[in-house]
Each structure stands twice: as structure tokens, then as C-alpha cells.
Design goal:
Blueprint: H1 3-17, H2 21-31, H3 41-55, E1 62-65, H4 92-105, E2 111-114, H5 126-136, E3 141-146, H6 153-161, E4 166-170, H7 175-182, H8 186-202, E5 209-215, H9 224-231, E6 237-241, H10 269-272, E7 273-276, E8 281-283, E9 294-297, H11 303-307, H12 310-320, H13 338-344
Parallel strand pairs: 1-2, 1-7, 2-3, 3-4, 4-5, 5-6
Antiparallel strand pairs: 7-8, 8-9
Length: 346
């Protein structure tokens, strides 16, 4: 990690979170000799105290709403093609009801992520949903994840008129193997993204922050440096990350090795996030693409009743006790960075 890149990423996370601590902790405990301390007895003692303090009171800061589970891509690392859930787009009234129910009952929520197991821009009502949150909850930061293929000039213009906090372009490949990896047109995606970036500059807007991401696969691992170099000057951040296997549902080949596999810690989203699928179900985990573990439906039940239910509390208690035997958790590999999560994300 070069100094220029480190400084840029630190600035990015400062603007994203209001503090650079995420990047600082990540750098110190993964790129310096301090990494040797991770999961030592001393480290674990203070890490456990951090977890205990955070989990005493359930005060989620992130609301994630799956506005659609329909996707226009066919990414080789994604199990979307085998998903059995009914594919649909969340209606505006349901979206509004979910937002109101959650945000009025959890004042601790700071961020709304409009994404799920689908492509957010498939939803033609996306702009209206963003507009509703802007008008009624102006203090809420809105993040959107997209592959960019459907981000037409008209949609880009409309989104840039709204208050967005971050947009993540999940690109995942260079031109030579883009079609093979995503099933999409590279030229179209690049044209859409460049238009969005240039329009943002033309409007002299600081937000939304623009991030480009690449999941490191066997097919693209040699392209990581070129990917960063290509997109670095077009946005605020470029990120490459290790693949996940969707709770054991899809094994993905990659030569990259996870940094910390010494100890598994509780999953922070169980306390930090409220995740709602396209049907209004509160689900336990973003890796649960079939919504197997449903904890309740926010369109039918009060959100606090669901989040404080005996079933959900038992799941959290098991995680704190180091018991990951429940469905989804048992086969999940998303915990590889759990030795840093609790410093980095709260």
C-alpha cells in the first residue's frame, strides 16, 4: 500500500464515516508489525471488552432495504441464477412503510443502504424512494450499490439531484474478461460510469462519494493493480476484496489468502444492522440470499418486537458464546475479518 493510496483512502473514510479510524485500524492491524498482536491474549482481552460494551444495548446504525431481488447481470461468483425466491420489485408504499417504521423507532440509524440480492437500478421507482427519504429524513445517509449497466444519463441526472452519501460501482473485472465474469457490456458500463462521474464534477458536488470495487477471483486476480490504476482517478476510492461463498452455497476459487483466520468472533451486523428483504422480512444476514432465516415481517409486525424477539436474542447470545452452529452461520466464511470488525465498524 503506497503512501499516496493510503492518504487517499484515509481521506475517503473520513468523509464516509466522519472519522478516519476505520482506515487507521485497518492499516495498523494488517499492514504493520502490530498485526502480530491480533488474537493474542492481550488483544483478545481488550477486544472482548469492546464487544461487550457495544452489545449491551441494541442500537443499530444501518438500515438495509432490498428494493429488488431482480438482477440484469450473470456474475460467475454470484448464486443469483440458482435463487428460488420469487423475483420482484418493492412497491413505493411498502418501502415508505418500512422506512417510517424503522426510522421512527430507531433514532440510532444513520445510514440507509438501498441494495440487496439484486440490481438496485432495475427499480424504476428508485429515485422516488430516495426522494422520500431525503424529504422526510434528511439526516439519513443513503448508499446505493450498482453494476452501472442500467445507469442511463437520465437516471444519473435524477440521482445527482438528490442527496446521496455513497454510490458503489461493482465492476469486478477489466475489459478483457468483463463479459465472461459479469455477463454485461463493458463499453456500456464504462460509458455510464464516466458520465455519472463527469456530471458530478460538473455540478461541483462533494457527494455522493464514488467507490469502485472488484472481487478478487481466479479469473481477475492478476488484474488488481491495473484495475486500481484504471479507476483511481475517477472517484474517491477503489477497493479490491476477497470473495465470499454465500454461506457455503457457492465455492469461489481465489489464490488470495484471508488475513486473519485464527479466531472467529461474533458477527457485528447482528447488532449494527437491520436487514429487510424485498418482501419485508427481517433477515439475519446479507449472505442469506434465499431469506432462509426470517425473524419477522416489518410490514406486519412492529420492528422492535422483531429485533428484540427471543429468536433473535438467542442468535446473538450464541454468537457471543462462540456458537456458530445455526443455519447460515454454520457454513459462512464472511467471518475471516471478524478479528478487526469491532474496531473498524463502530
Amino acid at each position: 500500500m503506497g503512501l499516496r493510496y493510503l492518504l487517499k483512502e484515509t481521506l475517503y473514510y473520513k468523509r464516509l464515516d466522519g472519522s478516519p479510524k476505520r482506515m487507521i485500524y485497518k492499516f495498523l492491524f494488517s499492514k504493520t508489525p502490530l498485526s502480530r498482536l491480533v488474537n493474542s491474549k492481550v488483544y483478545n482481552f481488550f477486544y472482548r471488552k469492546k464487544i461487550d460494551k457495544f452489545t449491551k444495548e441494541h442500537s443499530p446504525t444501518i438500515l438495509q432495504i432490498e428494493n429488488t431481488n431482480v438482477c440484469n447481470a450473470r456474475c460467475i461468483m454470484c448464486p443469483h441464477t440458482k435463487m428460488k425466491r420469487k423475483q420482484k420489485i418493492m412497491g413505493f408504499e411498502d418501502f415508505k412503510k418500512i422506512v417510517d417504521e424503522v426510522l421512527l423507532n430507531y433514532k440510532s440509524i444513520k445510514n440507509l443502504t438501498i441494495t440487496g440480492f439484486g440490481e438496485a437500478t432495475v427499480d424504476r421507482g428508485l429515485v422516488d424512494k430516495v426522494k422520500y427519504v431525503n424529504q422526510n429524513y434528511p439526516e439519513i445517509n443513503i448508499d446505493i450499490f450498482t453494476n452501472g449497466a442500467l445507469l442511463s444519463k437520465g437516471l444519473a441526472d435524477e440521482l445527482l439531484k438528490r442527496k446521496l452519501h455513497k454510490i458503489n460501482f461493482s465492476i469486478n473485472a477489466m475489459e478483457k474478461n468483463y463479459k465472461k465474469i459479469t455477463g454485461l457490456s463493458y463499453s456500456l458500463v464504462r460509458e455510464n460510469i464516466i458520465y455519472f462521474v463527469n456530471k458530478k464534477r460538473e455540478m461541483k458536488k462533494k457527494f455522493p462519494l464514488v467507490n469502485f470495487s472488484l472481487m478478487i477471483l481466479k479469473e481477475n486476480e492478476k488484474d488488481v493493480k491495473d484495475f486500481i490504476k484504471l479507476w483511481d482517478g475517477n472517484g474517491d476510492s477503489v477497493m479490491s476484496y476477497l470473495p465470499l461463498d454465500w454461506a457455503g452455497s457457492k465455492k469461489i476459487e481465489s489464490v488470495e489468502k484471508p488475513p486473519f483466520i485464527r479466531k472467529r468472533w461474533p458477527c457485528i451486523p447482528l447488532w449494527q444492522s437491520i436487514m429487510v428483504d424485498v418482501e419485508g422480512n427481517i433477515i439475519m444476514c446479507c449472505q442469506d440470499y434465499e431469506s432462509k432465516v426470517k425473524l419477522g415481517n416489518v410490514l406486519k409486525e412492529p420492528i422492535k418486537k422483531i429485533m428484540n424477539s427471543k429468536k433473535f436474542q438467542e442468535i446473538r447470545d450464541k454468537h457471543k458464546q462462540g456458537d456458530f452452529s445455526m443455519d447460515i452461520c454454520r457454513t459462512c466464511d464472511n467471518w475471516i475479518n471478524s478479528s478487526l470488525w469491532w474496531w473498524v465498524y463502530n
